[in-house]
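Good morning N.,

You mentioned wanting to compare the apo and holo forms, so I went ahead and generated the holo version with magnesium ion. This is what I fed in:
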Amino acid sequence: MFEEAKVLISEEVLQARVRELGLQIAKDYADKDLVLLGVLKGCFLFMADLCRHIELPLACDFVGLSSYGDRTSSSGVVRITSDLTRPIEGKDVVVVEDIVDTGLTMKYLMENLGQRKPRSVKICSLLEKPSRSVVPTHIDYLGFTVEDVFVIGYGLDYDGRYRNMRYIGVLDAP
Ligand code: IMP
Ligand code: MG
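and this is what came out, ligand included:
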């Protein structure tokens, strides 16, 4: 179906890891007031699968973030395009992100969330690209580390497309 995108992480491997992450979070948050906070739009498939492995009465909320930049790299100038719908004061927040690349988006979000007085904030990211790190990011729950390649699928896009792929792929050079 997506001949232009070669498989980097297959659907089976993805699903197995997402399940492990969900079970680990369920264990760690059994007695907490958990809010899963997804970063739109990239989180949407990951968060949908992840939250179904966390059998706790958690709440889901979303924040839309957009960083000015070109199609494949972020500039570090981040803005909130859609804010949370409920206060997180006193809550245990797990941010659900698709990929930590330079780390600039997460840095901005963590500073912003800190001002809202949550009880705790941790980061769950499906992917990280450490080779591109500009600011160090502590990822509490990490799916996979990837090389310095532009990845698409399972929520991640290239110019708005390919988010619906069931696997993480790499776009063939045109
Ligand atoms: P950062 O601020 O550089 O860490 O970038 C974070 C955002 O850039 C991610 O949440 C993604 O939306 C996007 N991004 C970074 N690398 C990739 C990639 O390889 N594929 C698709 N989106 C990416
Ligand atoms: Mg993102």
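The beta strands are 5-9, 34-40, 59-69, 74-82, 92-100, 120-128, 141-145, 151-152, 168-171.

Happy to go through it together on a call whenever suits you.

Best,
F.
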